[in-house]
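REQUEST ID: PR-0412
SUBMITTED BY: lab tech R.K.
PRIORITY: routine
TASK: structure prediction, single protein chain
INPUT:
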Amino acid sequence: MEIYQKNIKDLQQTLQTSENGLSVAEATKRLAENGPNQLKEQPKKSSWRLFLDTFKDAMVVVLLIVAIIQMVMGAHVESLVIFAVLLLNSVVSVIQTKKAEGSLDALKKLSAPDAAVIRDQQEIQIPAKDLVVGDLVILEAGDYVPADGRLVEAGSLKVDEGMLTGESTPAEKDLAVLNGTLPVGDRDNMVFSGTIVTYGRGKFFVSATGSQTEIGQVANLLESTTESKTPLQRGLDRFSKKLSLAILALSILILVVQISRLFIGGAPTNLTEEVINAFMFAVAVAVAAIPEALQSIVTIVLSLGTKKMAKQHAIIRKLPAVETLGSTSIICTDKTGTLTQNKMTVVDFYLANGQSGEFSNEPKNWSFDEKRLIDISVLANDASIAEDGTKLGDPTEIALIDYSQKNNQAYREIQKKYPRLAELPFDSDRKLMSTLHEIDGQKIMVTKGGPDIVFQRASKILLDGKVVPFDQAAQKKMQAQNEAFSNRALRVLAFAYKEINQDELNFEAENDLILVGLLAMIDPPRKEVFAAVKEARAAGIKTVMITGDHKTTAVAIAKEIGIFTNGNQALTGSELDQLTDAELTDRLADITVYARVSPENKIRIIRAWQAQGHISAMTGDGVNDAPALKQADIGIAMGTGTDVAKDAAAMVLTDDNFASIISAVAVGRNVFDNIKKAVAYLFAGNLGAIIAIVFALIIGWDNPFTALQLLFINLVNDSLPAIALGTEKAEPDIMARNPRDPDKGIFTGKTLISVTYRGILIAAAVIFSQWFGNMTSPEIGVAMAFTTLIFSRTLQTFPARSNTETAIQAGFFSNKIVLIAVLVSGLLFGLTLLPGVREIFAIPADFSLGNIGLALSLALLAVFLMEITKVFLNKRPQKNYQAAKNQQ
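STATUS: complete
OUTPUT:
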């Protein structure tokens, strides 16, 4: 039997305590046995271990092998360059990982520093970490609850449990024994560690401390939840392994072929030198094939994406999340504050004469009934608005004074005109609040409360300025309207008054009331959410609501904004617990609303979608959301949320707005497109170099490139254009596509064809260039090949901007960063021709301007063929696309 299901006597037996709490001796004994009231933390990986883990990548391993071989062979400069690149990438990776650690640290900050307890029948203050099960703790308004426990006293007690339940309004507490299995949000006779007392006072027996509390279980989930790799990371990992194996196989094959040639016709006299040359040739192939700067370029392009997303109110904490958003197919979103305004708002009213709807804020003559309804809502109210605009008080009461202000009834003037003379504060037993005022020379008590309670206490009703009996017909009419409001998931309050002849109020006075009417309120949807949900659906993204609120309220909001439609289902956390994994899988696609969920429920929902191959985003703001935020492919925390949620998330929304997620998805898709363009640019150039090297081997020419030349191109010359491609604007149809398949490789379809074609053209230009140079000397041939490769790879930046459009069609000057990058790359090549530098890059003194002009001409011809092919291959599809666009 759960703690909330037991009566106080059984509870004391279970906790081995008494109505006066524990003795100091017993508490000390329990503290020694069970440990302090603190969250436990699993040991984290050391920075050194994280650093070593970065070298597990297949491409990194191949580069290490290449660098070691070069070091042994005497090519110290080349090997040191590769070691420096690997070291820089590893350090950046460790820094990013360390930044992500902090969820549990933030969770610990929510612990109360001290607690008021009764020990040896005396009230004392102790550090909260010294609390033990069975302690009797005293709570006052403003206190952090220091542990989980069962209430034994509750005087108008309200506790803000939003971080655990997601609810925007404080939970009203009472002492009644509860039956059945209930989620945290419905355990009204309990309090939970880390929550805040907003009103009233109480006492409770501690039933759980440390890791056994609800917040402790969230911490355990955080520790046990592992973050999955992003689609881009998985794609690059797969590609790296395949590429690394291919490079090793090709290098070994080239080495074997070269060494075999040495022994054809007898061993050469300079065998050692020839073997070393064969090794260096094979190493050159590896250097040419591996894009050494790939990791850094991807990181920089992702960083550029973070700046774009920041303009969409999305702050990226973990770089890979930029691209992950673009692959997202499921968005599991919280309701309160994300889909809704997180502000209770009066949306309807009802008077005895049948009048309803929102009051108009146009100047008008208010009827007595309308004026009395607003006056009562403002007078029986403890909320206020500070001079700086800060709203203070219960969200429901704030909604009432907002409503008064909206209808040109200044609440301060009403309260000043009719000052409060006495009051009966709200409590959870009566579910009423009453205040006494002098109105028009008569002492009048005004009352607000739950409709069912006020209906029972009322004997009359205000009808068009006259007080008439609250007969059965009138009762039936008001109850029907209350039910109609409730069916719309509106929170309803009833308002009444009574003329009295006394200066003090007592509970007996709250009978024989005159009912005035009803006000209905809700946390309304954000206006921009309607279009955002529709846009998400058009982009192939399914939106699922996961909330701690009640099912009725959740479904009503979901229907209104288009998440819940015909054929969809809604489940509570308890109903979800009763489903097997197989049953959940069968129904998953139809369930669009989950209500009253636990942290475990949220993780289960996310994992169910991930098991079906979907990339899932999860939004949240509370401590209870943190484990699911970490489990999701991309966790999205609210800017107004807890530090725990922010630390567990990959992205933070500064405006808490669902519409900003959809805007960020568009940026994420554009970022992936641009990364793909940058990677394709790098590999097209590398493919061209490999083909040229293999061709030279087959023909028997000298290696067309030195290792240092290839490193210069890969690390310096190619980096700027690749980064510039990361700034390309989004394609027009970017949000009309379905999310990309995360299991598909980076090079598929047109991208693979484009890379291969561009690589072949670059290779052809280089091969012809080396052939022409060889007619003068092998040294000129190498210089020609190097120069042509640089020009070809740099100028292919323009074809790389799009697989379907030429640079002219895309707007030649639309991306000025590309133009600058190409220009700077040309200047960098010019540096290699300077005296003292050209020798390092194996460029002989007789390498002339004519040679450079021919190399540039060959590169321009290759680029022209790349672009002109697009015009013919994509002519018909472009027309069809434009026709379809015009029809839309």
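NOTES: The radius of gyration is 36 Å.
REVIEWED BY: pending
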